[in-house]
Amino acid sequence: MKYSCLFILLIISFFSCKENSEKSGELNNEGSDSSEYLLSLLPNEATNVHFFNSVVETYEANYLNYEFIYNGSGVAVGDLNNDGLEEIYFGGNSTDDKLYLNEGNFKFKDISSVLGLENLKGWTTGINMVDINADGLLDIYVCRSGPSKINTERANKLFINKGDLEFVESARTFGLDKTTHSIQSAFFDHDRDGDLDMYLLNHPTPGFKPKKFTTHIEEVKSGKIQTDFFFENIDGNFVDKTREAGLTNFGYRHGIAVGDINQDHYPDIYISSDFDEPDFFYINNKDKTFTNVIDEQINHISMNSMGNEFADINNDGLLDICVVDMAPSNHFRSKAYMKSMNTTKFNALADNGFHYQYMQNTMHVNNGNGTFSEIAQLAGIATTDWSWAPLFFDIDLDGKKDLFISNGIKENFLYRDIQTEVNQKQVELNRNLQLEELLNIVPSDITQNDLFQNNGNFKFNDVKNEWITPKKFNSNGAAYADLDNDGDLDLVLNNMQAEASIYENTVSRENSNYLKIILEGESGNTRAIGAKVTLETNEGIQVQELHNARGYLSSVSYPLVFGTGKNESIIGVSVKWPDGKVSVMNNPEINQTISINPADARTLQAFDPDTLNQYFTEINPKDLGISYRHSENKFNDYSRQLLLPQKQSTLGPAQAVADVNGDGLEDIYIGGALGQSGELYLQQNNGKFRKVNMPSFLRDKNHEDQGALFFDADEDGDFDLYVTSGGYELQENDPLLQDRFYINNGQGNFTKSNRIPKMLSSTKAVKPIDFDKDGDLDLVIGGRVIPGKYPLAPNSYLLQNDQGTFQDVTDSIAPELRTIGMVSDMEISDNDNDGDDDILVVGPWMPITILTNNNSRFIKAEIPEFEKTEGWYYSVASADFDKDGDLDYVIGNIGMNNKFHPSTDKPLHIFSTDFDSNGSYDIALSKKYNGQLVPTRGKECSSEQTPFLNDKIATYKEFASLNIESIYGNDKIANSNHLVLYNFNSVYVENLGNNNFIIHELPIEAQIGPTLDFEIFDVNKDGYLDIVGVGNIYDAEVETVRYDASKGYVLLGSKNGTFTSSNNSGFNVNKDMRAISNVRIGEKPHLFVVSNNSELDFFQLK
C-alpha cells in the first residue's frame, strides 16, 4: 500500500494530542441462510471460535508512526497432536493470539494457555506451523512486528511441540528470536541436504525514510540497507547465510511463495514488496545461491504487491505466480480512491531497475521456457479492491484450482478527498482535528471477499455471490484445510474488528470426487515440504507442490486434496520427493485418504521437456551476418494527447523480403526509426547475409519507416521498394510524412524515384493490386493516424500504375477508401470469386471492412456479419484454411488481456474534439457503468488534459459520480467525434462464399496479447495450413498495463478449419514484436521477427 509522504506530513499538523481512540466492531452483516452456499459460514457460537482481532489506535500508535497498523495478522492450520484433526492458530494485533484445538465436527476449544499466549505482549504478523526439529510434531513459528519500540515485544517466537499439547518457547535456542519487524517465514530445503532452511520476510524499521531517489537505489543495490534474512539449517541451528546465498535485499514485504518454478528440482522464491520497491524472483542456482531474474523473466509486476501464491492454474504441470494488489473493482471506487499513475515516476522506477509497476493484481503464467505471460485482466482477476491473501484450491473438486482473495482495510487513506474534507472540518471547528475526528473522516473500506471459479482456458468466473456466504469482513490472513476430514477443503479467515470466520465446504459428492494425499517425509523434513505430486486422469494432469506458507501471513494444511470431478478412476499418482526420487501409485481408488512415503522411491531418468513437439530452432541473427537493431527515437506522445490509449510514434520497424539481385536467394529489408536509415541484407550462397550500404536509404534516415513492400513497379523483372512514412512527433503535412519509392537497377541497388504523388499522410500498410487488370501492379496505401489528432481518420490512397508512374485515383475509383479510418493492415484477395481483387481493411475503431471491386471501382460491401465488429485491429492475412476453394481470413486484434473488455452490450466509446478550445485535440474514452457512460480515466489526468474540469468539479467523489456528459458538457459531447467498438478478440473469418462469413474467436493463446502480424504456412507438415502470430505493445499509457504477455504463438490447423495451440513449438520471442516474415535461407524455411527497439529474431523450421 502506498501513502504520500507529503500527505502524511500535512496530516500531522491536523492532530491534537488530547485523546486516545479505538474504532472497533463488526459491520452489520445481515445475511441469508449460510447453508445454501458452497463455502458456508459457520456461526461462531457453533464452532466456539470467538477470536476477535482488533487494532487500538492511539496518538503514540497510529498509521503515521506505524504505516502497517491496518495490515492485520495471519492464521495457521495444522495437526499439532497427530490425531488427524487440524488445529488453528490466530495471530492478534492489539489482541492476544489464540490457539484452538479441533475436537471434530467443527467444534473447537481454546487452548491458548498451553502456549502462554495470554502473556504474549506485542503484535503478531505471520504464523507458520512446521516441524522445525524433525521429531514428527508440528511446531509454531510466530513473526512479530508492530508499533512497539520494545525489542522483547517484537521478538519472534518459536513454540516447540513436546507432545501432548505441551510447548516450550525456544526461538533463541534455534537462533530465530529476531526483532527485525518480521512479517512471515517460509521453510524449505534450499540445498536438498534433507533438512529445512528458512527465509524470513521483514519490514524496514517503522518511520524509515529513504534518502534521495538515486542514493536509495545505490544503497539497495549495494546491500547497504537490508530487510530480509535467509537462514541455513546447519545441524539444527539456523545460521544467517543471506549474503552468501545472494539474497541480500530491501523492501516492504507482504508475501513469499516457494516452489520449483523451472522444474530443476530445486525450490525457487518469489517475494512481493510494497512502496515502490520491486518484487524479487529468485531462481535457485543449485549451489546454495540464488539469482534474481525478475527483470529477465517477468515483464511487469504489481505496484503495491501484497500476498502471493505459486499454483498451477491451467494444469500444465508448471507453477504459475499470482500477486495481489489494491486496485478498486468498480468505476466509482477507482475514481474516488485510486491515485493516478505518475508517468515521470513510473519511467524513473523502470529506468533504475525497479521494474514496470502497475496498480493491479498480476497472474504470471509460466511458459516453461524462462518466460511468463501476465494475464490477470484476461483471467478476470485483476482488480479485487484492497487485497491481502490469494489462495488457489479446488473448492468444487472439479479438478481445477479456484481462487479466493481476502480483502478490506480498516481505514483507507487512499481516499482522494481526505485532505479536502479535513480542511473543511478544521475551518468549521476553527481548530486542529483530534485523531478520532480524523479517523471519522477516513472511510473504512470493508468489501466482500472475492471468490473465483476456475473455468479453464485461463478464465475465472466471479462467484462470490453464489459460492460463499455474502458477509463483508476486513479479512487479512487466510488458510484452507479439511477441518472435518470429509475430503474437501474448508476455509479459515482472520478478520480485523470482527470475529474470525470458518467456512464449511458443502460441495455435493454427486459429481465431485476427490483424492486426499498425506505425504510422510524423511528425517529432517518429516512433512515432505517441497515434494511435488502429480495426479493423472483421463482429462489430464494436476500438480501440487507441498509448501505450507501461502497467501498472506499464513500457513495452510499439509495434506493435499485433489478434485477429480465426475472422473471415477485415477490413472496414477506420482510423488517427486525433495531429494529428486519418485514414488508411483497406479489406479488408486477415489474418495479416500492415502498416505505415501518415500520407502520405495526410485530415481527416474530425467527428460527434457524442450525436446517435445519442437518445430522451430532459434538462430542467432549475428550467426547469419545480420547486425540490425531497431533504435526507436524517444518522443512523449502523451505530451500531445495526454489520454492516448497507446503511443502512435512507435509503430515500426517495417520489413520486406524478396530476391532483389536476381541470384535466386531471398534478401531482407528492415526499416529504421526516425534518425535511423533502413538496411538491406543480401543473402549469400553460404546462408549468411551481407549488409549493403545504400546511400539513398541513408539520405532518407529522418523518415520513420512504418511499412515496406518489394514489388516490380516498372515490369523490368526485378523488385522495387516502396516504404511508407509516419511519425507522431511530426506536424500535419510535414514533408517527412511523404512515402518513398526506390527503383531497383536489377543488381539490388536502389535509387529514390519521384514517380509517386505528394502524400503527406502518416501511412503504414501498403499492398500491391492490379485493380484495373492491365497487367502491372497498382498500390493501395493505408493512412494510419493524423499526428496529434487520434482517432481522426487520415487519408488513404489508391495509386494507379501508369508505366511505372503512380497517380492518385482514390477519389474517382475508391472514394470510400479516402478516410475509411486509421488503417493498420489490408489484404488483397478475390473474396467473392468474381475474378478481380477486392480489399479487406482493418484498423483501430474500424469494423472489418471489405471494398468490393466492381468493374474496377471499389464499393464498401454491406456484410451483416461484419456489423458491430469494430475493434483495435492490427493485421489481416488470408488463406484457404478449410480447403473449400475460397479465401478465409485471420484478423489480429488487441486481444482479451486488457482492462476494457468491450462487448456488444458494453462497448468502448471514444469522444474527441478540442474540449477546452486551447488548440489541442482532446480525447475521452468511456464505458457504461450502472447504465451511464463514464470516463475510463480519472479526475487528475482528465483535468490535466482539460484544466477547466478542476474549476467545474471540486472533488474526486463528485467526479466519480458524474457521467461523461456532466463532466465535459452535453453540447461538447454531442458535437464531438464519436466512435464505438465492440470486440477485442483476434478472429478467424470463415468464408462461406457469396459474401457470407462466420466469425470464430481464435484460441485463447491468440488472445493473451495483440496480434500485429501473421505468417501462414504448414508448420507441422500435415497438409493443413497453420498460423504463426506475433505482437505486443509496450507503449501503452501508464494507467493501462502494457501489452507484453505474448511470446508469439503457433496455431495448428485441421481439416475442418479449426485451430489448436502448439504449446511447445520452440517459437518464443519475449519482445515488443511488430511483424513476422518467412524467408528461405539456403534450402530451409525460416521465420524472422522484427521488434521495436530491438534486434531481429530468427527461427529455422525443422
Structure, explained:
With 1102 residues, this protein is mainly β. It contains 18 helices and 79 strands. It folds into 3 domains: 446 residues, YVTN repeat-like/Quinoprotein amine dehydrogenase (Methylamine Dehydrogenase, Chain H); 409 residues, Methylamine Dehydrogenase, Chain H, CATH 2.130.10; 72 residues, no CATH class. The strands form 23 sheets. It has a 4-stranded antiparallel sheet with strand order 3-36-34-33, with no helix packed on it. It has a 4-stranded antiparallel sheet with strand order 6-7-8-9, with no helix packed on it. Strands 10-11-12-13 form a 4-stranded antiparallel sheet, with no helix packed on it. β38 and β39 form a beta hairpin. The two termini are 49 Å apart. The N terminus is likely disordered.
